[in-house]
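Hi Y.,

Following your request, here is the sequence exactly as I used it, all 182 residues.
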Amino acid sequence: MAVNRYKNNERAWYAISTYGGYEDKVANGIKERVESGELDERIFDAIVPKEKRIEIKDGKRKVVDRKIFQGYVLVEMCLSDETWYIVRNTPGVTGFIGNGTQPTPVSEKEIAKIKKRMGVEDPKYSVNYEIGEVISIIDGPFKGFEGVVSEIDATKGKMKVMVSMFGRETPVELDALQVKQL
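Below is the corresponding structure, written out as tokens. Let me know if you'd prefer a different format.
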């Protein structure tokens, strides 16, 4: 009779490391193996923690999903020799995170923080500028110009900047990601 090395047969979340860029493939691979076998009562979920971020590309604002932890997947399961073997031998998995050979469960508090971070629907804007501050425009049609911040809308991540063009001050509305401090 086989001896179960893993005495913790309770449902818990575990972090597994993966090759870079393989996080989604690993999570999908684990889910597929669960759906095809009888492990649905011992492996419950596999997630790649992601959050929504705002990027500007070609002058357009875009909301993208970014991995919170590059190279890691979270798996909710009851740890046993069989479940450890299934997860560990999923293509792209490099190992469990833990002490030596014993995987360590991720605390419920930490999982709650990660899920809260993942659940944020609208990405947060960080506008760390003040009215009257001189800034440099780094993207868009006014790239290379300098200006003075005249208004800030922190909820939308926008600001009005007074740019000197043709000998007069012209107000320009910019995204906070299009400027940098001098």
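The two ends are 70 Å apart (CA to CA).

Thanks again,
Q.
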